[in-house]
Amino acid sequence: MNVDSLFQILFGNGNECQFYKDFLDRRKTVDLVYVPWPETPNVQGNKERNISYTLALSHTLGPKCSPVVEKQILYKSVPGERYIIECECYNSGIPYSDSFYVVNRYCLTRVSANKCRMAVHSEVKYKKSIWGIAKGFIEKNCIEGIKDYFDNIAICLRNECNSSHIVASGSDEHRKKVIRRRRGLSMRAAEEKVTSSGSFHSNSKIDLPHPQIKQQIPAANVTIQTKHVTPYSVDVLVRMICIILILLVLFNTVLFYKLWHLEAVANHLYPPSSTSADISKFPQSQGGWNHLLKHQENLHTEEVKRWKDILTTSVLLIDQMKMSLIELKKNIEDRESNLKK
Fold it and tell me: Where are the beta strands (DSSP E) in 92-231?
């Protein structure tokens, strides 16, 4: 397949061709609004157009479809030699859709009369800052979406090449050979994955060098190598957060137990006064009042004695602290005198 044919089936104006029908069926894409390229380029010499469609999503949770607006820019190209196209994909209807968009840059170059090469660079660009865990989810889903996209592209291009080959072949023998070759390729199609020998860096760039068109059949092997990715995946981060929360709960439980135990010890050392229980029933005779006054006097005496003990202990502690400070001051003075000598 030459470079002009590849450009036409990927970015041409023939949206009714069988290739686009097969590709849309595989992607489960609906509501396609297709705009042809303008006749004249803009001031920079480029051509721009916008297409929109609704893409089906296969995630278990969340929305099942996402409206997409794709802005395509065709830079200055040389027909028959090279084409450079940049596609900006803006999703909506999904979490954080207003915070990022995906840019795919295609470079189609001529190898020979019937061979060409397609290189693609994909990048996730952010419109606003996003916290780390959400950013990890976004980049993970973008990688899966890009792999699925180029997987379908490779399969559809293979089918398009095989169909063109069969139509062009005139003899029955050649037709049988092509059919056998097509069967062999179909059996291997289930085992092949989209490859990209680029790198996915921490600044959210995804490099996907890309299927090369060899022998009129596009390659379907693309491998994503992750270099400089954050050392912990999202799952590991979630587990670490859960472990930290469990440890905090345990520490709070131990602290509550210690406070409760401290309160019990304080109640044991300083039991609450039972005066209110004694005077709950007022005495009715002079002897009862004398007994109550004597009891109050005893309680007051005990309280004064306890405070005297506390003050005596405090004075002793202060004296010990005073002696310690005097000793410390003396040691410092001796040290200074030794240093001066």
Answer: 100-112, 115-126, 205-208, 212-214, 217-218
Collapse the DSSP code of 50 into the 3-class scheme (helix H, G, I; strand E, B; otherwise coil) and give the result. Answer: strand
Contact 85, 11 (CB under 8 A): yes
Instruction: Please classify residue 3 by burial: count the beta carbons closer than 10 Å to its beta carbon, then call 0-12 exposed, 13-18 middle and 19+ buried.
Output: buried
Mean pLDDT of the chain: 75
* 100-140 pLDDT, tens digit each: 999 999 999 988 888 888 898 898 999 888 877 888 888 88
So what's the pLDDT on residue 220? 37
Tokens of 7: 């450009």
C-alpha distances (whole Å) from 151 to each of 64, 158, 246, 249, 312 are 20, 11, 43, 47, 87
Evaluate the CA torsion angle 59, 62, 65, 71 in order and state its sign.
negative
How far is residue 73's CA from residue 45's CA, in Å, rounded to a whole number?
11
Map tokens 């028959």 to a residue.
80
Q: Which residues of the chain have pLDDT under 70?
A: 14-18, 21, 60, 164-234, 270-283, 341
- Which of 117, 120, 97 has the alpha carbon at shortest distance from 224? 120
**Torsion of Cα atoms, 139 then 144 then 150 then 156, to 10°:** -150
Question: How far is the C-alpha of 149 from the C-alpha of 208, rounded, in Å?
Answer: 12
Q: Which two three-digit tokens encode residue 296?
A: 């109050």
- The span from the CA of 3 to the CA of 286, in Å, is 122
